[in-house]
Specification:
By secondary structure, the protein is mainly alpha-helical. It is built from eleven helices and two strands; from the N terminus they run αααααααβααβαα. The protein has helices at about 1-35, 50-70, 75-95, 120-130, 140-150, 160-170, 175-185, 195-200, 215-230, 240-250, 265-275; strands at about 190-195, 240. Strands 1-2 form a two-stranded antiparallel ribbon. α5 (about 140-150) packs across α7 (about 175-185) and α8 (about 195-200) crosses α9 (about 215-230). The radius of gyration is 37 Å and the shape is elongated.
Length: about 280
């Protein structure tokens, strides 16, 4: 009997020791885990913006800047934006049908596509100049108007170029219009209109008579007359200052080398559509 009690006592002691050991081990583990910094909660992944979202945000920024940098009201800017969107949609539709190929989709030198911008291409732009603003001119002059509008050289008239170009067309001051016409006529954009550039611009404007043996001689004679009139400092070329001084004296010479500004009738008609 005494032996049985002794065995029970020993077994009980062993169980107690095991329980104590387990308790101590658990306490150590809890201390270790509490000493370690808590794992950072995983940050939720930001949803990647679609091209449409990016384009929309960029457009909104441009429209906000246009309120400050152009001569249009808020409602006029919004109306011009809607017109731009319709023109771009028309442009994309024609492009998808293979009727119009935009320069903005051509691959770059390193084989990667260039940064594609939304905009109006040269063909649609020429249609707008001709049908909306009564500008009838040779292809070279039309192309120069496009290039002056497209200051960033995207090969497209972007939303920003559209708003700034129309601001000058419709409400630009005389000084701004003089600067614009000069930039159009300065074919190589070197800051001067030379005799050769005058010849290139005027030979397409003059009507050639069949009886003339050398029509180019008449153009050269006209270039000499215009150069003497415009070259104020007699350096053989016309600077912006020369051109400004001439136009201030004789406003009719603003478009001496070809039409590149809208008619008053077309300006009033277009502005009236913005109020509708």
């Amino acid at each position: 009997m005494a032996a049985d009690l002794s065995n029970l006592s020993m077994r009980g002691g062993v169980l107690v020791m095991k329980s104590v050991s387990l308790f101590l081990a658990g306490t150590r583990n809890s201390k270790r885990s509490s000493a370690q910094p808590a794992a950072k909660a995983a940050k939720p992944r930001r949803k990647k913006m679609s091209e449409q979202d990016i384009a929309y945000r960029c457009s909104m920024k441009i429209l906000e800047a246009a309120k400050r940098d152009t001569l249009f009201t808020r409602s006029e800017i919004e109306a011009l934006y809607k017109i731009f969107r319709r023109l771009v949609t028309t442009n994309k539709t024609k492009s998808s049908q293979g009727k119009i190929k935009s320069n903005a989709n051509t691959p770059s030198i390193i084989g990667k596509p260039t940064n594609i911008q939304e905009g109006i291409d040269r063909i649609v732009f020429r249609e707008i100049l001709h049908n909306t603003f009564d500008i009838v001119a040779e292809n070279m002059l039309m192309d120069r108007i496009f290039c002056v509008w497209d200051k960033a050289n995207y090969g497209l008239i972007t939303l920003e170029a559209w708003l700034h170009g129309l601001s000058l067309f419709l409400r630009g001051s005389t000084i701004r219009q003089i600067e614009f016409c000069f930039s159009v006529y300065d074919l190589n954009a070197d800051g001067f209109i030379t005799k050769d550039e005058m010849f290139q611009l005027l030979k397409n404007c003059l009507i050639k008579h069949p009886q003339e043996e050398d029509p180019d001689e008449s153009v050269k004679d006209l270039v000499d007359i215009v150069m003497r009139k415009m070259d104020k400092d007699k350096d053989g070329k016309v600077s912006l200052e020369d051109f400004q001084g001439t136009v201030v004296e004789e406003p009719l010479l603003l478009e001496a080398f070809g039409k590149c500004l809208p008619s008053e009738r077309s300006k009033n008609t277009f502005l009236s559509t913005l109020k509708a």
